[in-house]
Amino acid sequence: MANPSKTLELQILDREYRINCPDGAEEKLRDAARYLNEKMSEIKNAGSSAGKVLGTDRVAVIAALNIAHQLRELEAEHQQMKRDLDKMHSAIDEALEQNLQLEL
């Protein structure tokens, strides 16, 4: 049986989009749409301030690239934290092993 879905109406850069959404994920999708709208608005406003008229497609691509870049940076940070935690676990395990040997 397939997961039921709902259709949400989302506003991004003053345009309405109807998006299918898995049941129970509505708020997360709305939050993602708000975030995307904020990022796209920032890019559009920055272009306008510089005297440029950026098309919606260009704004969307720049926003997507910025968000993808942020995601990749967070993934790299996550991997580094994981490596650091693995080193700490190894050091703790080694210290516990040495302590156990000293007690014997």
TrEMBL record:
Domain of life: Bacteria
Coiled-coil stretches: 64-98
One of the record's GO cellular component terms: cytosol
UniProt entry tagged with the keyword Metal-binding: no
Major location (coarse): cytoplasm
Presence of the UniProt keyword Coiled coil in the record: yes
Compartments where found: Cytoplasm
UniProt cross-references to InterPro entries, sorted A to Z: Cell_div_ZapA-like, Cell_div_ZapA-like_sf, Cell_div_ZapA_N
Alphabetical GO biological process terms: division septum assembly; FtsZ-dependent cytokinesis; septin ring assembly
Gene3D superfamilies: 1.20.5.50, Cell division protein ZapA protomer, N-terminal domain
Keyword set, alphabetical order: Cell cycle, Cell division, Coiled coil, Cytoplasm, Septation
Stretch forming the signal peptide: none
One matching Pfam family: ZapA
Assembly information from the UniProt record: Homodimer. Interacts with FtsZ.
Family per record: Belongs to the ZapA family. Type 1 subfamily.
Protein name: Cell division protein ZapA
Organism of this sequence: Thalassolituus pacificus
